[in-house]
């Protein structure tokens, strides 16, 4: 049995007010020096800046680990940021080049993100009003968890909320199990999160995401892997990903491929339940990146509200682009056994050969029922609104090789796209 090291033994106070970063890090360092063990965040609320897991040290969270809103407590350095190596703040919990560790428990990781959201939206509104450029890195804010270069990792049982930026970022890691986590961030008009992806699987191999919930004001599960004209030579493929038995609430994409992805292959999404306004199958084509997505399958999905397909070119006001007219290709995309009701619309599948191609598209046993009342996607932001091309038809363009088998929209068989 692993030795346990409660952070309270090192002087941490769980009152939600006293900064405990140093004491928590001392517990981690001491556990590592003793050959490993489990650092415990006990009942209570422990306020902290960036902490760094060490060799042979796992962390169990029984109470709440609360991120401070003081950005100076998250040291900035070179890290993975939106598909590149950039200077950006550390996460609340960081793991670099570690093997065989767990981040688990029944407690909460809370990023304390509301002050970061307010600063972001105020800066963005000012830039728009002044006609100035604005990108995400103009307002630094911390991720909740960053796992880089690690293997044989378990993230289990935790509640992740209010991340200042992305919630769980897995980068260049392999053999990762994410199980029974609950990830959420606010999306009301009064409090709206900023770029709080649920989980980013970025240049990773052999990742399983299972029995979890995601409801965030951005992409819920996002498959990434680099962007820009040099991305294929600088990044490994993201491959062999299994997403199963998950529930998806509000978001911009239930499972999204992009916005930083160049080579993705062998992804299976199965037994998914979408209960909030969202877009089920989302691909973001970007003309500054040579993209190839191959052997992607969605199987057994129930959905209420939102849009089924969102496969199209994409750019965001918060993103930077470099270059143009590079190819984006999907090979072997299969979507089958889908039951979607009360949706805003079937959505769109837009190809534009030769630079944008969708080869071997298979749609099988799909039943889509649109809402009887006119509706729209609420994003609380007119600048990011994507709209719905057609409320009752799968909008398509440039599709050359596809197969339809029992695809119905409002009870009518779809015979061609």
Question: Quick recap of the structure?
Answer:
By secondary structure, the chain is mostly beta strands. It is 8% helix and 49% strand.
Structural account:
The protein has one domain (39-413): Pectate Lyase C-like, CATH 2.160.20. The protein has helices at residues 21-33, 114-130, 231-234, and strands at 4-6, 15-19, 37-41, 45-48, 51-52, 57-61, 64-67, 76-81, 84-89, 93-96, 99-104, 108-110, 145-148, 151-156, 159-161, 168-171, 174-179, 182-184, 199-202, 205-210, 213-215, 219-224, 238-248, 253-257, 263-274, 279-285, 291-304, 307-313, 328-343, 345-350, 356-370, 395-397, 402-409, 412-413. The strands form 3 sheets. It has a 21-stranded mixed beta sheet that branches. Helix content is 8%, strand content 49%. The mean pLDDT is 94. The protein contains 3 helices and 34 strands. The N and C termini lie far apart (59 Å). The chain is mostly beta strands. The chain is globular and about 65 Å long.
Give the secondary structure arrangement, pairings included.
Blueprint: E1 4-6, E2 15-19, H1 21-33, E3 37-41, E4 45-48, E5 51-52, E6 57-61, E7 64-67, E8 76-81, E9 84-89, E10 93-96, E11 99-104, E12 108-110, H2 114-130, E13 145-148, E14 151-156, E15 159-161, E16 168-171, E17 174-179, E18 182-184, E19 199-202, E20 205-210, E21 213-215, E22 219-224, H3 231-234, E23 238-248, E24 253-257, E25 263-274, E26 279-285, E27 291-304, E28 307-313, E29 328-343, E30 345-350, E31 356-370, E32 395-397, E33 402-409, E34 412-413
Parallel strand pairs: 1-3, 2-4, 3-6, 4-7, 5-10, 6-11, 7-12, 10-13, 11-14, 12-15, 13-16, 14-17, 15-18, 16-19, 17-20, 18-21, 19-22, 20-23, 21-23, 22-24, 23-25, 24-26, 25-27, 26-28, 27-29, 28-30, 29-31, 30-32, 31-33
Antiparallel strand pairs: 8-9, 33-34
